[in-house]
Design brief:
Elements: H1 2-20, H2 22-29, H3 33-55, H4 65-92, H5 94-101, H6 104-115, H7 122-140, H8 149-174, H9 181-196, H10 209-236, H11 239-245, H12 248-261, H13 267-285, H14 291-297
Helix pairs in contact: 1-10, 1-12, 2-10, 3-9, 3-10, 4-5, 4-8, 4-9, 5-8, 5-12, 6-8, 7-13
Length: 298
């Protein structure tokens, strides 16, 4: 058991570090966002096809038509999520887009409350308030020189929308419990291929070898390998440790943005980002507020 936890922790850490670097690959590829996602889906599909075949996931009876339909629906949501998030990077910076994207738990909370009648407690509302205050701080902050005006606000809006579509994909994934995760991922990227094929390549194919290298890496490493590490870790780790290690992702994205592009968050942006991360952690780990604060919120 202890060995599983150690191995799972290493795998989860690696998966989150890989996820945290994808913004650099997206921006350095120099390709339109639609093309980036299309090539990610193509090379990811080839990688996952080999993995699923090796693991025997194509056996008859592995997937019903209902589950297949749900996986496709989740694929639409996850691909739209990628398009929005990647588009946000160049408008508001990798750091800000990633921090805003970490409002995902609150999107799940809202969807669960509105459509599935899940109970929303005063504690959850309090954490939502903290996250909202963080969002206001980020929106009101003076952005760095490269990110100004309406583009900055558009980037924030796109990152928020990306979080919403990720939450939809997560809700669909709950309905697919027991289905091989690598098969779900394969269906999702193939769905993305079919969605984007009519629109991809309008500006022509990448001309430089390094661009192809980055695109292949996003499919093989950030999709195929990352899924293997992530799902293997989830199977080995207790939920609280999975949640804790997931916060490596935004920290890694911040580091990449600072080291690779020299982007430093303004004080208000730092404060807002910290508020969102603390609120997300509070939701993830079920932190409670002091009794007096809970009474004020309720």
């Amino acid at each position: 058991m202890e060995k599983d936890v150690k191995t799972g922790s290493i795998e989860m850490t690696a998966a989150m570090l890989i996820s945290g670097t994808i913004g650099w690959f997206v921006l350095m590829s120099g390709q339109p966002v639609i093309d980036v996602v299309f090539w990610r889906c193509l090379f990811g599909a080839l990688t996952l096809l080999a993995i699923c075949a090796t693991l025997g996931h194509f056996r008859s009876g592995t997937l019903t038509w209902l589950l297949f339909g749900l996986a496709v629906l989740g694929g639409v949501a996850i691909v739209v999520n990628w398009l929005l998030l990647f588009g946000a990077y160049s408008r508001s910076s990798i750091s800000i887009a990633t921090m805003v994207y970490n409002t995902q738990p609150f999107m799940l909370l809202a969807i669960g409350g509105l459509f599935f009648k899940e109970k929303i407690t005063a504690t959850k509302l309090a954490w939502l308030g903290v996250a909202f205050a963080g969002m206001v701080a980020i929106v009101e902050a003076k952005p760095a020189g490269d990110f100004t005006g309406s583009d900055y606000l558009t980037g924030i809006a796109m990152a928020l929308a990306a979080a919403f579509f990720y939450a939809l994909a997560a809700l669909v994934a709950k309905r697919l419990k027991g289905t091989p995760p690598h098969l779900i991922a394969l269906i999702q990227v193939v769905t993305g291929l079919l969605m984007l094929a009519p629109f991809a390549g309008a500006s022509g194919l990448p001309s430089a070898a390094y661009q192809w290298t980055l695109l292949v890496a996003m499919g093989v490493i950030h999709t195929g390998l990352m899924y293997i590490l992530l799902y293997s870790a989830i199977q080995k780790l207790p939920t609280h440790l999975t949640g804790a290690l997931s916060f490596i992702y935004p920290v890694a994205a911040l580091a990449v943005d600072r080291i690779a592009f020299g982007h430093l968050l303004q004080p208000a942006q730092l404060l807002g980002s910290a508020a969102i991360l603390i609120a997300a952690a509070g939701m993830t780990f079920g932190w409670t507020w002091p009794r007096r604060v809970r009474h004020q919120v309720g």
